[in-house]
Write a structure and sequence with these properties.
Length: about 110
């Protein structure tokens, strides 16, 4: 199962998230849940890096399916909009493939 955990501050802003695990929906290379979640996360992070002044801390371990994204300054409105868009896209995947991906909010 892919678990995506979001940390939300008292102002409702995403301050960090981590994604870990494997969907096991299908064999490696054919797993549409893993591919979809990865595309959403990496596309969103690329947009954040190219469209905002954010300088996040990123840690990734490909073998374990671990990806961590942390912000020191989460106050940028465009940054938060991109993160909210990512969450909506991941929720859409979760609605269809909930046995393989789960979103958690803290």
């Amino acid at each position: 199962m892919i678990n995506v955990e979001f940390n939300i501050n008292d102002d409702g802003q995403v301050t960090s998230f981590k994604m870990e695990g494997h969907a096991h929906f299908d064999e490696h290379g054919k797993d549409i849940v893993c591919a979809g979640a990865s595309a959403v996360v990496f596309g969103s992070v690329n947009a954040i890096l190219n469209m905002t002044e954010a300088n996040p801390s990123i840690n990734m371990e490909e073998e374990t399916g671990y990806f961590e994204f942390k912000l020191e300054e989460p106050d940028d409105a465009k940054l938060q909009l991109l993160l909210e868009s990512m969450i909506i896209s991941l929720k859409t995947i979760e609605e269809e493939y909930g046995e393989h991906i789960r979103l958690l909010f803290k």
